[in-house]
UniProtKB/TrEMBL annotation:
InterPro entries, per database record: Solute-binding_3/MltF_N
Signal peptide (from-to): 1-28
Stretches assigned to the Solute-binding protein family 3/N-terminal domain: 40-262
Protein name: Solute-binding protein family 3/N-terminal domain-containing protein
Pfam families: SBP_bac_3
Matches recorded under SMART domains: PBPb
Keywords: Signal
Amino acid sequence: MKTRNISGRILQAAVALALAAGAAGAHADATLDKIKERGTVTIGVLANGGVFGSIDPATQQLVGWNPDLARELAKGLGVKAELVQVQTATRTQFLISGKVDLLIASMELNPERAEILGYAPTPFFRVGGAAATRKDSGIAKWEDLRGKPVCVSQGSSFARPLQADYGAVVKGYKSSSDSLLALRGGQCVAAVHDSTLIHPLLRTNPEWADYHAPIATEVLPANSVVWTRKGEADTIAAVDKVIQGWHRSGWLIATEKRLDIQPPQPLLQELHDKYKQGS
């Protein structure tokens, strides 16, 4: 089963859900009012292992960049946080169907997503795709993937450029963990996922000592944003105000350092300087 076909069906289902949701709530953004009334915001987070999101084995709590941002966002909105773990292939449906109010789920901005979802315009990170491959694979540039099997998560935005621009034979898996397991099992020559997943994994996990990320550039770099349902202007404004406050105070830079995210993301310093000057 090819990722593009899966992604197409996911997108079609999401569009249908978005149209239904839009018809039901075209005249007002009631989400922010409901959040305030409940005193809780439900946020979908992606926890696929590593510093950007994982489950602490001692506490069974979601920890890392995405969960930390979700909890701090709830604090900024003046409510409690309820975190819901989502998967790459189903995170959009969770938001549109109302299972969660917001998404902080390693889900970068692109035109297809912006067609069916709303989002807070101020980004909190920038991410592209990095390729993990065996050190003896001979892969040195994206073009070396032509005609070769490459593993991705189902619904990954990297599938299209890998196929269209570099001629890779894309194989979709339910999660990034399944994709990386397939790489180790020899089912593909590379696994392409967010650089924020690949680099920490290869840098800190001795089980991956025979693998590296040899391609210097990232595929499809894009801004990471908080996602809402379409047309929720009040929610978007409230969320964006909180994110701008993070940049102004330097909280995102401090969180990046605390979690030892490497390499540092230059966008965070750029936006800190921008909003600090505007304060």
